[in-house]
Amino acid sequence: MDLCVWQQRSPHLIELRIRGNGFLKQMVRNLVGTMLHLERNKGSIAQFREIFAAGDRQAAKATAAAHGLYLYRVDYRRRLTISAENSRTSGS
After folding, report:
1. What is the pLDDT of residue 10?
2. Dihedral angle sign, alpha carbons of residues 27, 30, 33, 34
C-alpha cells in the first residue's frame, strides 16, 4: 500500500482511497474496520501503523461490512504483452 487518503464527505459518508500493487482477501475491509475502530476509540495513526506493520490479522481490530465498499479502478501502468512463445498451445 503506497497511498491511503481518508476524507469525511458528509456526516454519514467517508471516502477512503487506497492504492497498492496488490491486496489480500478482505484486506481493504480489515483496514477500514481497523481505522473506524481506532477513530471511535480515539486511537492514533501510530497505533494503526503498528497494527499494519505487524502483518498479523489477529492484530486488526475489526472487519468492515462489505456494503458501501467498491472497487473504483484497476490501473496497469505497464503494458501487458504475451510473447508468441507463450501464446502457442502445446501439441500443435
Report:
1. 92
2. negative
Q: Which residues fall within 8 angstroms of residue 71, CB to CB, at 6 or more apart?
A: none
> What is the tens place of the pLDDT at every residue in 34-52?
888 988 898 888 988 888 8
Task: Give the CA distances from residue 51 to residues 14, 27, 28, 65, 66, in Å, rounded to whole numbers and listed in that order.
Answer: 21, 13, 14, 19, 21
Residue with cell 458501501: 68
Stretch among 26-35, 53-62, 73-82 having the lowest mean pLDDT = 73-82
What is the spatial distance between Cα 47 and Cα 40, in angstroms, rounded to a whole number?
A: 13
Rounded distance between C-alpha atoms, residue 34 and residue 30, angstroms: 6
Domain residue extents for the chain: 3-87
